[in-house]
Every structure is written in C-alpha cells, then in structure tokens.
Write a structure and sequence with these properties.
Blueprint: H1 2-14, H2 38-46, E1 52-55, H3 64-68, H4 75-87, E2 92-96, H5 99-104, H6 106-122, E3 126-133, H7 172-186, E4 192-199, H8 211-224, E5 230-231, H9 240-249, E6 253-256, H10 261-271, E7 278-282, H11 292-301, E8 305-309, H12 349-358
Parallel strand pairs: 1-2, 1-8, 2-3, 3-4, 4-5, 6-7, 7-8
Domain Glycoside hydrolase family: 152-309
Pfam families: Cellulase
Family: Belongs to the glycosyl hydrolase 5 (cellulase A) family.
Length: 361
C-alpha cells in the first residue's frame, strides 16, 4: 500500500507539467521540441498494432559493447534469433546502445545500427533503442569484454556511462554529441518505434545522483526533436523525484514491473491517469510470479504494450535469477527470463503457444 501511495503522489506531482518545455539545469535554455500533447501520443499509439516483444541482445553478446563493437557485431545470430521472435508474432524489440561503442567509431557504429535495423525490419519488428543505463557493472571499458561468470545473472552487463561518470557533469560534454549524433541520423526512421533515453536511473545505489543526466538527456533529445516519441521508464516507486521528472518529460509512459497480476493491475490503473499510452518495457520473471500466462493477457486486455526481459538463453545468463546464482552453472529449477533455448526450441511450448495466440498467429 505504501508503494501505491508513493506512486499516486508522484503522478500528482508530475502530470501538471506535461505541456512545459524542458530546460537544462546548466543553461536554463528551453529545448527545441515540447513534450507531445497527450492527444498526439494517443494518436501515435493507435496507429500501431498492439506492441509485444522482448528486450534483445543476441545470445553471443554478454553486454551492449559486445553487441555493437565492430569485432563482435554478429548479424548472422541477430538474423536467426529475430526470426524466432517473428515466428511467435513479436513485433517489437528493446535494444540497448552504448556510448563507448560510438566513441570508438561514430560512423561505423551508426552503420551497424542501420544494419541491425535492416535485419529487424526484414522480420517485421520495430525497435526501441535505449541510450543510458544505471544497471550492473559500473566501469565499462571498450575492447574485449569479460567472459560470463558461471551461473550469475548478467555478470558482464555494463552501465552507461558508468559510475562515477554518470554523476560527473564534466562527462556530459562527451555524451551530448553521442546522443545527438545518433538521434540526428535516425530521427525520421520508421523502423524505430521510440527512444528510451535512460534505463532505470538511480539504480546501483545512485538514486538522485542520476537526476542531472536524466534532465540533460531529455534536453539534448528535444533539441533534435525526433519524429519518434521519447520516454524513460519508471521502475522504483519510492524514487519520487526521479519518477516525477521522467513522467513529466516523457511523450509516452513506460515502466517496469516484475510483480504478480494483482499488483501489476494496480500500477496500470494508476499510470492510466496520465492520459498517455502505456508500454511495459520490462516484465516476466517466472519465480516472482510475473509470467507470460498471467501478465501478458493482462497487458493485452488493458491495451498496454508488453516487452518482456530476454529472448534467447546466452552469454547474459539471465535464465538465472537476480539473487540466486548457481555456481556450478546447472540448470535452474525454473528459468527466470528468456523464451528460447540456444537452438531455437521454446523453453516452454505452452508459453510460445500463448504468445502466438495473443499476437493473432
């Protein structure tokens, strides 16, 4: 109940400011593009089929850098695995970028992004791109990435830009060109569904230390004013100041929820008071009773986009639970995330049958 009261409070704090332009903390200069009116956001949402899909990294990549760096970019695996996603009717993938991969070679990075988009478009899948991320390892380094740690969930996933970089405004001079270069290159690209500017700000103990970067990335994006909507998903209901900032500056409302059906439905009802489309960009953790069987039908009934964590078991090790490592690398009693085994067979056939049915296949 306390969590719900906090969520209600943040909605009251946030929804009064949707029509305002964003201002940067450092300069006070208004951004070029305003937050979309709610009516425009709803019209955009109605123009798309119900969104369903997964957070995607190819099974051969331990993290965002291994996915996007030239030496390890793997279009063959991407093509194969997005084909499996298409086969069960998924039409959306959420994909994390990384600023260090861009800094190595901006032109090559954008070329690989375009190649990824060509593959996904072949499979009738639109993409949500994520810029920054406060989750997991805090010191990303370009080049060869670490091998997976046996039985440990996301052992090699990297924050972007990392810690303390995300807290240090001196790093923003390197991050602004990255964000604006990528947005400028793809600002009208119909293969991109929307831009998710910052994943789980405040995670890894940062809390309000991430506020300046959240504020700035929205301002940088509004200066480019892409045709696609902007968002940053709320995820921790007690992060009231961050949540209010994210909701106030997002064109569409995105959020994460790994709880059961009853709690998730309450969250949906509260978030609908914003008057904006809702997309759940992370859900489905089987051992927490957030499952395809109970949550995906709920999201479709409520007309909320449904993007689960994980597609194919691989180097991220996200079939293991966050807090239950298996040091011997044995098979979990029940997979935490993921839909397919490495050979493309479903982890649970009843789940993929349900996903197909909900996607009209």
């Amino acid at each position: 109940m306390k969590k719900l009261l906090l969520l209600g409070w943040l909605l009251l704090a946030a929804t009064g400011g949707f029509a305002q332009k964003i201002k940067t903390k450092s300069t006070g200069v208004a951004a070029a593009g305003p937050v979309w009116p709610a009516a425009k956001a709803q019209a955009w949402y109605r123009a798309h089929p119900w969104m369903s899909g997964a957070n995607f990294a190819p099974s051969t990549a331990i993290n965002q850098l291994e996915m996007w760096q030239a030496a390890t970019f793997d279009p063959t695996t991407i093509d194969r695995e997005l084909g499996w996603a298409e086969g069960i009717g998924f039409n959306t993938m959420r994909v994390f970028l990384h600023s260090l991969a861009w800094q190595q070679d901006p032109a090559g990075f954008k070329k690989r992004v375009n190649e990824y988009l060509a593959i996904s478009d072949k499979h009738h899948i639109q993409t949500i791109f994520v810029f920054f991320d406060d989750c997991w390892n805090k010191e990303p380094k370009a080049g060869l990435q670490p091998a997976p740690k046996t039985g440990i969930h996301n052992s090699g996933w990297m924050q972007d830009p990392g810690d303390p970089a995300s807290r240090d405004s001196a790093t923003f001079s390197k991050l602004k060109p990255y964000v604006q270069d990528v947005l400028s290159a793809f600002r009208s690209d119909k293969r991109i569904l929307f831009w998710d500017l910052y994943n789980e700000p405040g995670n890894s103990g940062k809390r309000t230390a991430s506020l300046p970067l959240v504020r700035n990335v929205f301002a940088w994006a509004r200066e480019i004013n892409p045709e696609q909507p902007l968002s940053s998903g709320i995820w921790a209901w007690d992060f009231a100041e961050l949540n209010a900032l994210q909701i106030r500056n997002s064109d569409i409302i995105t959020y994460h929820d790994y709880e059961d059906e009853n709690w998730h439905l309450r969250v949906i009802h509260l978030l609908k008071t914003t008057g904006r489309p809702l997309i759940c960009t992370e859900y489905m953790a089987r051992s927490r009773n957030s499952r395809f069987a109970n949550i995906m039908p709920l999201l479709k009934r409520e007309n909320v986009g449904a993007i689960n964590w994980g597609l194919v078991e691989g180097k991220t090790n996200t079939k293991y639970a966050w807090d239950t490592p298996l040091a011997d690398g044995s098979e979990p009693i029940e997979w935490f995330h993921e839909v397919f085994r490495a050979d493309g067979t479903p982890y649970r056939r009843d789940e993929t049958d349900l996903i197909r049915k909900l996607n009209g296949r």
